[in-house]
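Researcher: We're teaching a course module on how sequence relates to structure. For the next exercise, students receive a sequence and then see the predicted structure as tokens, so they can try to spot secondary structure elements on their own. Here is the exercise chain.
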Amino acid sequence: MRKDTAEEDEMSPKPRPEIFVSNHRQLLFDDFFLAMASSQHPDQLAHKIRWSLAKVEKHPEPIFFGEPPWEDSKQWFCILHDGGRYRLWYNSSVKSSRGLRVSYAESEDGLEWRRPKLKLVEWEGSKDNNLVYLGAFGVSYELGNVFIDPVAKPEERYKMVGAEWLTDRAFGTPYIGAPGAFMAAYSLDGIHWEHYWRDLLGRYPDSQNVATYDPVLEKYVAYIRSGNTYGELSVGEHPVRGVGRGRGVGRIESEEFTHWPGQYSGEHVQIALAADIQDGLNVDVYNSGYSRYPEADNAHFMFPSFYHHWEGTFLVQVAVSRDNRRWVRPTREVFIPLGEPGSFDCHILSVAPGFVPIDKDHYALYYRSGNMPHGGAHPSVAKPEKPVDGMGRVVLKRDRVVGIEAGPEEGTFSTRRLLFEGRRLVLNVEPTGPDPCLVVQILSGEDDEPLAGFTFEDSVPLREDNLDAVVSWKKGAELGELGGKPVRLHFRLRSMRIYAFQFAE
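Model: And here is the predicted structure for the students to work with:
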């Protein structure tokens, strides 16, 4: 039973000035760790640095197409690395039958996929296919994602969400006249699915909606299609109603998966991400691509597709969050570039939810690809003779999405006070230009003065590309008795980017 607010506040840990990082990996994708320097130490101010994106390695060709007679094309999908194999749930559709359904495939390497003949769902008189789910009403089920629920009973360990068109049959929940619903299903094994007979939202949110369980919040969180407005004026004698700005990413959370606060009213849907004046009126956000990073504390990412209406293109950016509630974009750079004109992903690129592990040092992000401009693009935009929609993949090195970098002119920044456990400081660093260099000093005491033996002058410069570069000083890499004491890290860097730090054993 949930505690009342007063009791919960009394039992919650009190915020402290230091950040407890233990010996866990910490990503530098925002300003959370960065300190505001005092007037006594102006050299510790953040200066001549910026956040920038890592480069990804794109697979040159699409890796999955619609093939059998029950899938002329495919749309939204998600992939989990589960039980030593890669598992793919994806939308399939056929031209002869309106609507989307969910199919299933498996892979040993994440590139070559097989469609097992599951014999579960009948299609044109045969069950000799890999179909697993038609939705609660069998009209059209627009897949969101599949996730593994760590707190569910075994028979509901796998959960699926998606937007579904409704038939006229009643299903025992309030209905507000919307043409569809946000529905879910559960499974013991990810293959055999049963419906939850409850609309989670009270309307049809198209595009790819993503749900997950957050073990820190101890709540279910969903990122769904929502609206966005601009141009509202609420003061003066002639107020003006805001007008639509297209899609945005809405957010809802709940302690129970099938009972979301504000169901059917929409009053608890908060805008998590939306286009703004810098993006322009030609742009809105098509889908979230929400992905929790599995190897670092408090690291949540979105890889949203910003839909440019005139051009009919989807351009992927990066948004980040520490708490899975508040989101920022540290840079407006494009993360995964569109393909060259005429290629399989020259117009559409929508990242599927989830970091997919490849090996100990690499992750993959998969994306829905298309060579056709989205409907509504300006007539002058060229269209291919043969539309192709497939699945693409990019690979990125561990921890490398967003980092802090300085150019050829030296930059500097320092952290807030940290409490750590461990014997050595390890950094994920990458050169970005000629003559790269990064040095570190440790600040300690009430006045945040450089600690003897751990100053910039003592620091051995880092110059190489290294996922786990051990910081050392003239006296060595051991941090001695500093563990458990408040310290700050002060960085100077040139033609280098730093993505993460960790106090390792």
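Model: If you want an answer key for the exercise: Residues 168-177 have pLDDT under 50 and may be disordered. Residues 5-11 form the longest helix (7 residues).
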